[in-house]
Amino acid sequence: MNQKIRKIERVSITDQVVKQLQALIMSGEFKIGDKLPTENDFCAQFGVGRSTVREALRVLAAMGMIQIQAGKGAYVTKDKDNSFDAIKYWFAEKHAELSELIEVRMGIEPLAVRLAIQRASPESIKQIQEIHQAFKLAAIRKDHIELATLDESFHNAIIQASGNSLLIKIGKLIADSMMEFRARSFAVIENINHATIPHEKIVEAILKKDERAGTLAMIKHLEISKHDMEQVAHEIEKT
């Protein structure tokens, strides 16, 4: 491997691993069809834990750059980031599946934020605030990889703060299914703004301990996500 792999700083670890692997693929170090090194190899090369490497590979798979084959490893499938047209057609193709995911989120996430407002510890609230601040900075940079992982972290932190173990399990299942949506969605500039402002309103409601405002802000946030997705699908139908 010609391009040198740097040790990873302990800030946004998964994002840094994703970006380094993405750079290696786009530079041609790993070509389409190549099998990537093992998780253990990457752990040693990057100086991170196995869970970080697995999460980074999951993000790259969601972006369509690699394919993970059970029992065989990860293979490079694409050496360029998503073009806007490719993203649009992906949304249209996945429209029904994404609609169902958002419908389920509509059921559990307003409940999660209400319970979080009732039960969240000061540490949990601080974590939600810190994730939101990181999200805003990533939005300024238009860093769609970091935005995807931070968006997942933001919603997961709220669900965790609910203190409901069943809700947390359901949230994890949804998060796994939503990563591909997030990775592609934030590559569309308009969608970044459509998430940042609703996140701000959700955080404000949590800080004010306003259950009604938090619930309404979460519902509005998910409605905007659903509308954005339907708009893309509608545009494709017209072409």
From TrEMBL:
Protein name: GntR domain protein
InterPro entries: GntR_C, TF_FadR/GntR_C, Tscrpt_reg_HTH_GntR, WH-like_DNA-bd_sf, WH_DNA-bd_sf
Residue ranges of every copy of the HTH gntR-type domain listed in the record: 11-79
Entry keywords, A to Z: DNA-binding, Transcription, Transcription regulation
Natural source organism: uncultured spirochete
Source organism, top-level taxon: Bacteria
GO MF terms, alphabetically ordered: DNA binding; DNA-binding transcription factor activity
Protein's UniProt keywords contain DNA-binding: yes
The keyword Transcription regulation is assigned to this record: yes
SUPFAM superfamilies registered for this protein in UniProt: GntR ligand-binding domain-like (SSF48008), Winged helix' DNA-binding domain (SSF46785)
